[in-house]
Amino acid sequence: MKRTIAFACMLVLVAASVALAGPAYPQRWNYVNASLGSDAGMGQFIEVLRQSKDVGCTHILMPEGGWYKGSGNAEYLARVEKVKAVAKELNLVLIPAI
């Protein structure tokens, strides 16, 4: 009887500590190989952003670093601004890999 009570108390303590610990991984990253050189590529990338958010991602690591360095192509920069706006709307952090 004493063992049963002791075991039950241990289970309650373990369950309480797990519940109070919070999420094991507060940041969830996704690596996305994006191409913002075309409208179709931008559309695909935005769809991946939405899917990533739906599964709990918080950060997007992308090798498309041209926008970070600066590009003279106005259409490209417009697509970059659109992607950044969507990421901000979804509360995702974009991390360019240069």
Provide a concise account of the structure shown.
By secondary structure, this protein is mostly helical.
Can you offer a commentary on this structure?
The chain is mainly alpha-helical and 98 residues long. Helices cover 57% and strands 11% of the residues. The chain has 4 helices and 3 strands, in the order αβαβααβ. It has helices at 2-21, 39-54, 66-69, 74-89; strands spanning 29-31, 59-62, 93-96. The protein has a 3-stranded parallel β-sheet, covered by helices on one side. α2 (39-54) links the parallel β1 (29-31) and β2 (59-62). The termini are far apart. The relative contact order is 0.16. The mean pLDDT is 79.
The pLDDT mean sits at: 79
Total number of helical segments? 4
Q: Tell me the strand order in the biggest sheet.
A: 1-2-3
The low-pLDDT segments are none
Shape: elongated
Radius of gyration: 22 Å
Structural class by sheet pairing and helices: mainly alpha
Helicity, as a percent range = 55-70%
Number of strands: 3
Strand content: 5-15%
Q: What is the chain-wise order of helices and strands? A: HEHEHHE
